[in-house]
Amino acid sequence: MAASTYSRRSFMTAGTATLAVGAFAAGTGRVAAAQTGSSARDNLAALDLEVMTVTDTSIALSWTTYALSGGPVEADTELLLGPADSRAPLQQVHFDETPVAMHHVIVDGLEPGRAYRFEARSAGVRAIGNHVVTNLPGSPERTGVVRTLVPPPGRKIRTIAVANDIHIGEEKSGLIVGDFPPGASQEPGLPPYADVMLSGMLAELGRAGVTELFCNGDLTAEARPAEVARARELLDGFGEKGRNWWATRGNHDRPHRGAEYSSCAPYGNEHFDCWGQLFTPRQTMWSTDVGGLRVVGLDSTHVDSSGGLIDPAQFDELDRVLAENPDQPTLSLTHHPVTRDAQWSNFTGPPFVLDDADAMRLQGALARTPGSFLHMSGHTHRTRRGPADVRPDDSRAPTEYLEAGVVVSYPGNYTLITLYEGGYMVNLHRVASPLALRWIARSRHTYFGLVPEYLLGTLADRNHVAHRDFSGLR
């Protein structure tokens, strides 16, 4: 992925930013690259500004251009940037005259811990954040100022990826019950959007040199044989199962009833487990070691419910594995969120997430494990950190609990966790291939246009640093 690069002496463009080619919906208009002055500015709005990713040396932001008469419109892409402590005018760090409707720019080469002023523009019109979540006090979309992170101390060790809610085979996004509310479908003639998003993410991980990926549930739409086979095919193209990628089961991947599943292995008297044949049997925990980092994945699925549970055998196995080396740095995964904050803040309530007794038992096991530093979940499709309900008995920092954003549709995220000797950095990245951006722009208007308010989360939830002792990792 190319990016615009900042140097301390000057701004320069190194290649082009990742931009969507063409419009994301039929009937998209265009503002010509040569059009200037009041004509373009008076007929265009640049909205949906989102500062998605902030690392120690880079920022990534997106926005969309619309005609005032309605509908998306293509225009050029421009970003101005400068140190916030300087009185000098902002300098242009990126400009691309290619007409696009959804704009995505990455700027690299920034200084850690430094604040920068920025202005995103198309056809001379400044992009703004027009949602509540991007107008919270201190949000960069509101202030026009963003501060890069300060990485943990010590040597950088490795970066791993976590992705959830991939939904291979899904044909309509944004549905809650039946066909309500109105959802979004892929444009005719384009590849299935779930394939677009997973393929785009895997390509980005490859270019970034990330060789370990943990898929945290809902790899498929409904675990049909073709969906399971396609998910496995795409992941096998990334690398080897158990060496380069691992997967937990989500509720969409559960055993199903019906003739279309009958070619798969029977599960009980009425169900067939297509997902288990190619991935992992139901209610089976796995653990792996990545350079000294212990990663544990648990199956949190019911057979016939969207909510979550963990059976006693998995808890016994978890206790055994954690007791082998309680101090080993440990990342744990369940598809279902496990905090009471998640129970009461998701819009469908406690039955949608992990059973409370199981959640408290899991938190208790992690609280007794000094090496446990992060538990990640998906399922809600949003990005949100929740407080630990069960905390360690001593002064140790509790495990961080993070619900990570969805891959398959808006906001189109995956998580990179960068490990240092002195801690870790979490960054959610937007899948930024041209077709991915086109689909993200199309699917952002589901839930009657309210989906960003529920799913995007705060900048601090998407990007943050925590200090831990990882000096024994390699």
UniProtKB/TrEMBL annotation:
Any single biological process term in GO: polysaccharide catabolic process
Metal-binding as UniProt keyword: yes
Highest taxon above the source species: Bacteria
Listed Basic and acidic residues bias regions: 386-396
Pfam family, one: Metallophos
Keywords: Carbohydrate metabolism, Glycosidase, Hydrolase, Iron, Metal-binding, Polysaccharide degradation, Signal
Signal peptide (UniProt feature, chain positions): 1-25
Residue ranges, annotated region (Disordered): 373-396
Molecular function GO labels: hydrolase activity, acting on glycosyl bonds; metal ion binding
SUPFAM superfamilies found in the cross-reference section: Fibronectin type III, Metallo-dependent phosphatases
Domain Fibronectin type-III: start-end pairs: 45-153
Family stated for the protein in its record: Belongs to the cyclic nucleotide phosphodiesterase class-III family.
Protein name per UniProt: Fibronectin type-III domain-containing protein
Organism: Dietzia timorensis
